[in-house]
Amino acid sequence: MFFSDSRQHFFNPLTGKYRELVSECLRLLYQRLYTDLRDYGHAMNREQLVDIFKEAIARAPILDADTDTESGESEDANEGRFKTQRDLASFIINRLIENGWLEKQVDETSLQSSYGFSRMGRLFTQPFADNDANQFRTRNRNTRNTRNSLQAFYDQGEINDLLDAYEYSERIISDFTDVIAELEERKRQLVREVESRQLIQQASDEFFDFMETVFKPDLEVRLSADSVEKYRDQIADIITKIRRKRKYGQGDAETAAKDWRAVMEIRLRKALPQKVVPGISLLETLLQTIDSRLKNACDIMLPALRRALNTFTQRADIIIRQLSYINSRGQDDLMDIYHVLGKLSGEQQDQLLLEQGESIASINIGFVDPAQIQLRAPRTIHVVRSMLDDDKALDVEAQKNLFIQQALDKAFILQSSSLRDYVHAALIEKGHIRSSELKANSMQELLNLSHAIEVGAAANLSSRYRFEVDQQASWLQGSPLVSTDNYFTQRDEFIIRLIDDGADHE
């Protein structure tokens, strides 16, 4: 459980009127402990901690306390009031220690106390420090980093490269989510600015500044150089190579003879024992997860980014059009004429309009809305080639190959009628014959001889006469009876009979 031991009310310091002070204290302490502002030569004692918190208290404001709706009392009574910044800093320190954000450690030798973040306190304080930090990091290279790490793992067999690829693949999804969320926030901010101030110059300047300096460069790289669609096939090929890699071939004789994937599986299980599940390959799980994340980024997140972009630009276009109309309306003399006419009576309006109508009767004018003028791309005319090319004559080599193929097909073709005629001609005298007595005087008869046993199938056309093939069981237990004859090296012997079913009924 998360809310256990000293973390039962973990987020309590971030409530009440001092919540901004607490967040500023945590952010400044994080910078002093984990950034280049830290003094690495000394441990953090209470006096140094108080000085850091006093500096943070001087920077941050005290917010209005929320009123309890049930009791009607403010939280101010529970948090108290403090005369000096030192007292307030001590109160915040004790509150953070009680709720599990900070830890107090005592040196048993010198009996000196030192203070620092707890593990959970450091993890939850990092967003406060990263919120306004100008870090040197890339936001749109995670797809390429995933590809490069997988390639390094395939080439060198270092499991840390595979774990880096796993982490980079997770950031691909989070980067898409961050961009979509930023677009939605910018859209809402633009609407709020228009509704509150309706200053077209400021609203449009901020919009175009965001598009030119932040969104356009990031999106260009994300959809071109770091496109998930561009590297998806490459990453899939590397994953396939990893799954097919076999002999390890390094180290001692026993290790070198092992399967490469088995060696990587053993190393992963040693490095991540808490992730081991019996009967499930940890290597295959990581590879499947990376492949699934790339698939989701291409099939789900990239279309969602395009939809968010279209919605954002359409909303911005509508708002800027509206502001342009409102701004231009204030400088339009036509609106002043409408106001003057509105103050006159109906008869005066008619008289004035008639006089103006006679003076401009010969003028033919019209108004064009510049906003409605759009340059359309010229329509592409597709030329369809409807002529048929004449068949080209085959060259000599093609004609020769075609002739050989036809001759072979004709030579080795076998028809059931030809087979029955061949067997019938052999049975015409005695009514039965052994397969060893069959003769072949041509290529066609040799084919019929090799397929003579097929006459026993149900393909007989006559309803009275049929062929029957008999083969004794003792003939099949030993070697083939017919060997080294004029036609085959070895073949089985069987007896073919011509049976007259109609003789029994006569």
Q: How would you concisely characterize the structure shown here?
A:
The protein is 56% helix and 6% strand.
Question: Could you walk me through the main structural features you see in this protein, from its secondary elements to its overall organization?
Answer:
With 506 residues, this protein is mostly helical. The chain has helices at residues 19-34, 46-59, 76-79, 85-98, 119-131, 142-156, 159-196, 200-223, 228-244, 253-256, 260-271, 282-329, 333-343, 346-359, 396-411, 416-427, 443-450, 473-477; strands spanning 102-106, 113-117, 432-434, 465-470, 482-483, 490-491, 495-500. The strands form three sheets. A three-stranded antiparallel β-sheet has the order 3-7-4, with helices on one face. Strands 1-2 form a two-stranded antiparallel ribbon. Strands 5-6 form a two-stranded antiparallel sheet. A hairpin with a 6-residue loop joins strand 1 (102-106) and strand 2 (113-117). Helix 1 (19-34) crosses helix 2, helix 7 (159-196) packs parallel to helix 12 (282-329) and helix 8 (200-223) packs antiparallel against helix 12. The termini are far apart.
